[in-house]
Amino acid sequence: MTLTNNDLRKLLEDMIYIRTFEDRLRINFAAGAIPGFVHLGIGQEAIMAGICFNLQDDDTIGASHREHGVLLCRGIGGDKLMAELYGKRTGICKGKGGSMHAGDLEKSTLGCNGILGSAQTIINGFSFAHKFRKDGKLAVTVFGDGASNRGEFHEGLNFASIWNLPTIYFICNNGYAISVPKSKQNKVDDLSARGAAYGVPGIQIDGNDIFAVLEATEEAFKRARAGGGPTLIEAKTYRWRGHFEGDPDIYRDQEEKDFWMAKCPIRRFEKYLLDHEVMTQAEIDGIWKSASDRVDGHQKFAEESPWPDRDDLLRDVYYCDEGSVQA
Amino acid sequence: MREITMAEAIREALDEEIARNPEVVVLGEDVGLFGGCFGVTAGLYEKYPNNVLDTMIAETGILGLSLGAAYAGMKPVPELMFSDFLTVCADYVVNQASKNRYMTGMQTGGQSAAMVVRCPNGAGVRAAAQHSQCMEGFVLNAPGLKIACPSTPYDAKGLLKYAIRGNDPVIFFEHKMLYGVKGPVPDPGEDYVVPFASADIKRVGTDVTVVATQAMVHKALSAAAKLEEEGISVEVVDPRSLKPLDKNTIFGSLRKTGRLVVVNEAYRTGNALNEVVTLCAEECFDALRGPVVRVTGPDTPIPFSPVLEDMWIVQESDIIKGVLKALDA
């Protein structure tokens, strides 16, 4: 695919923004400012930025609990996302969803699903609607190697195949389902091989290489838009942090972490841009500084926002409430 | 007024709503050419091949797709072949459809995950423990769902049309033993809906209030006719929807009669009508002139043998006994 220097700059900006946003979540969670659970996708930024780069506005995407970056790339707005994670009324879901459900359907971006696997069937409803309406759009579901062992993934992929739906199944294979390594989960070397069982093309890529993500999604999206049906993409990657913040992470050794951190998708992309004289180090430093300033603003917005009140508790259950909410 | 069966009434509702909104889609196992396991969708596939879709045996796939299509603004009406299969795809009902509007801060532009899940319910067809249950109680506890349980062809058509035009997820129970029961229904051209939370007094009486649902409404009515011969006047109230529940009609009846019997086919513990008893105890206790009587199935799986199944199912004689017990108290 042909990328302009502006495209490359935007991709780097997105990846650095995601890293900076998530790193702030790490710090503020540890400080006790963020309630509940937070799962960070630090180390997986190329996947989030790369997929979103090839999406059109009305394409649908639903990601998992580790992909705050997808929400940011889809323009949900860092203020509203940060406020949601703080549980504030100004959050994108009015503080009722939190990290595990934040999304914005008006931007065709679903919240993460708290039940792993369910999103892999629900996504077909969106791709079905796109196909039914002949609008040329598609739907992507991004999930982990862990969720790929749920029956719903298999049922969903079969549905997408037999109904020839424009659904892209994108597995971020970071090697661990919480603490359980791949060796205890499945015998196939590559999860992409599972596509063959359903008559779906299965593609495997290096998820830390932004160009590989861009190329694989471009090809799959093109096929889906042309009526060619679903594709299964498996991106091998690694999460730098534990499953959730606070995870003692006793199941991985430092040597393994160092190996993967040396393959940082952002540093790798920066090196490419420097080597090819697309950007200077000063420009890259500027992007990091600018991302940090943006995230400062989001944090301030979240901290200064009001908490929801008792009226919010009882609202939004039904569209038409014929007296059915008892309290 | 002409008389048609409940199966025909439901089919007419689907037919008319697809014609009214081309984004209504009916999907499920064998709902296409085969016409559905109970023949409810017969002929619809031929008329609307793009809107009536056969699926593989995959309840989680069916409900997941329906849910996504509902979020995307379509109006899916999935059919589960038996309401018992709600357990297979319970996640999409209990954890997804019921919660999505709330946990996303109702971003869907005023719409919930508004699918209408049609569920054939109930015992009596010798189908044993996993194809015979009444599952209302199973879904009643989840916030954000609406639950309809019609007893007549008129109510079934009107409630289903109301459900399909609404913006909330609905679990729509259809009793298998009522599919072939006929009743008056307006001609196809005469559009009408039956709103939820509109209980219907199926028989007016003064001595005792019997709240019954689905097949039990018919048994309660025949029990009431027999009791009338004994000089006992029974009022039969059909809630028609369990959530939302029209409690005021029930309270009004109870304030008149002072006696309450609830009749529901399902298991006794966790029975959906226990909620009616609770509401009456909370808000209408002063009107009660004696203990409430529950007439329900026992807390056992539903047996296969016709002899045993008939013992399991609440019969007219059980309701008569229940009414007499309420009056003796």
Task: Using brief descriptors, characterize the structure shown.
heterodimer; A: 327 residues; alpha/beta; Rossmann fold; 6-stranded parallel β-sheet; two-stranded antiparallel ribbon; 11 helices; B: 329 residues; 5-stranded mixed β-sheet; 4-stranded mixed β-sheet; 12 helices; 14 strands; 18% strand
Question: Would you write up a description of this structure?
Answer:
- The complex is a heterodimer of chains A (327) and B (329).
- Chain A has helices at 5-30, 45-53, 68-73, 78-86, 119-132, 151-162, 210-225, 254-261, 265-275, 281-304, 310-314, and strands at residues 60-62, 109-110, 139-144, 167-173, 176-177, 180-181, 202-206, 231-236.
- With 327 residues, chain A is of the alpha/beta class.
- In chain A, helix 6 (151-162) links the parallel strand 3 and strand 4.
- The termini of chain A are far apart.
- The mean pLDDT of chain A is 95.
- Chain B is α/β, with parallel strands linked by helices and 329 residues long.
- Chain B has 2 domains: 3-184, 3-Layer(aba) Sandwich (Rossmann fold), CATH 3.40.50.970; 200-328, Rossmann fold (3-Layer(aba) Sandwich).
- In chain B, the strands form 4 sheets. A 5-stranded mixed sheet of chain B has the order 9-11-10-13-14, with helices on both faces. A 4-stranded mixed sheet of chain B has the order 5-7-6-12.
- The termini of chain B are far apart.
- The mean pLDDT of chain B is 96.
- Chains A and B meet through helix 5 and helix 6 of A and helix 3, helix 4 and helix 5 of B.
Short structural summary:
The complex is a heterodimer of chains A (327) and B (329). Chain A has 327 residues and is of the alpha/beta class.
List the helices and strands and how they pair.
The complex is a heterodimer of chains A (327) and B (329).
Chain A (H helix, E strand, L loop, with lengths): L4 H26 L14 H9 L6 E3 L5 H6 L4 H9 L22 E2 L8 H14 L6 E6 L6 H12 L4 E7 L2 E2 L2 E2 L20 E5 L3 H16 L5 E6 L17 H8 L3 H11 L5 H24 L5 H5 L13
Parallel strand pairs in A: 1-2, 1-3, 3-4, 4-8, 7-8
Antiparallel strand pairs in A: 5-6
Helix pairs in contact in A: 1-2, 1-9, 1-10, 2-7, 4-10, 5-6
Chain B lengths: L2 E3 H15 L3 E5 L15 H4 L4 E3 L4 H13 L3 E5 L10 H8 L2 H4 L12 E6 L14 H5 L5 E3 L4 H13 L4 E6 L6 E3 L15 E4 L4 E5 L2 H15 L4 E5 L2 E3 L3 H11 L2 E5 L9 H10 L9 E4 L9 H7 L3 H13 L1
Parallel strand pairs in B: 2-3, 2-4, 5-7, 6-7, 10-11, 10-13, 13-14
Antiparallel strand pairs in B: 1-8, 6-12, 9-11
